[in-house]
């Protein structure tokens, strides 16, 4: 006769399996062990244009709607990218700290010092004086790192390799030297270069571009000079670039009134 496990026996077995996966009594489960939110593995860049005063962030990730998480900016104050098990208070509080007069370096140090999950965090910041900084936690998924340059910071985690952020930095500098270009173009050039270097090694899904300038949004009633998002797309950077070109035409009056560069 075949022996079968009775329903009560099955329930007891499931309970035992569950108990085996629970931490021992007194063992502390920290945020580092069990992140509350999905991993926002991505690459991003924050930048500042000293001629126009523009501040902005561009980002791409294999993550739905990354524009709702990573980019934060306030005109005449600063821009922040927060990612890798992102703590979005790095965006709101980072900007608040810079508005109070802290440098991006001081703001990052303050935020990470008070965050037990900081080994899993990554962030980039730049202020309205062009001072930039990036932070990559020790436990961010490889490859993870950053490049900081004059008026910008490029960072990423779970990337194809170090060349992603290095190529982003080079492309940003080259684009900034092109006459008639602006911060949005430099940020997008960096993102395209990062993708061509391998980008997020999981693939592509969403992208976002946020650029702020005082009183340069719709009807000059806000500071959202450019605020574009691609939530779910096979080639999000290409789609984001297409939207940017449409934006330039649609809001040509705002662009026509931008400060002139030499």
Core attributes:
262 residues; alpha+beta; disordered N terminus; six-stranded antiparallel sheet
Q: How would you describe the overall organization of this protein?
A:
The protein has 262 residues and is of the alpha+beta class. It has a single domain, classed as Glutamine Phosphoribosylpyrophosphate, subunit 1, domain 1, CATH 3.60.20.10. It has seven helices and ten strands. The strands form two sheets. Strands 7-8-1-2-9-10 form a six-stranded antiparallel sheet, covered by helices on one side. The protein has a four-stranded antiparallel sheet with strand order 3-4-5-6, with helices on one face. Strand 1 and strand 2 form a beta hairpin. The longest helix has 15 residues. The N terminus is likely disordered.
List the topology elements:
Blueprint: H1 7-20, E1 42-48, E2 55-61, E3 71-74, E4 78-83, H2 89-99, H3 104-113, E5 122-127, E6 132-136, E7 145-149, E8 152-156, H4 163-176, H5 183-196, E9 206-212, E10 224-230, H6 236-250, H7 252-256
Antiparallel strand pairs: 1-2, 1-8, 2-9, 3-4, 4-5, 5-6, 7-8, 9-10
Quick overview of this protein structure:
The protein contains seven helices and ten strands.
CATH topology: Glutamine Phosphoribosylpyrophosphate, subunit 1, domain 1
How many H/I helices? 7
> What is the H/E string?
HEEEEHHEEEEHHEEHH
Got a strand count?
Answer: 10
Measured between the Cα atoms of the first and last residue, the distance is: 92 Å
Q: Pairing-aware structural class of the strands and helices?
A: alpha+beta
For the biggest sheet, the summary is: 6 strands, antiparallel
**In CATH, what is the class?**
Alpha Beta
Strand order of the largest sheet: 7-8-1-2-9-10
Strand percentage: 15-25%
Number of domains: 1
Helix share bin: 25-40%
| Rg calc | 22 Å
Oligomer: single chain
What CATH architecture would you give?
A: 4-Layer Sandwich
The averaged pLDDT comes out at: 86
CATH superfamily: Aminohydrolase, N-terminal nucleophile (Ntn) domain
* Coarse morphology: globular
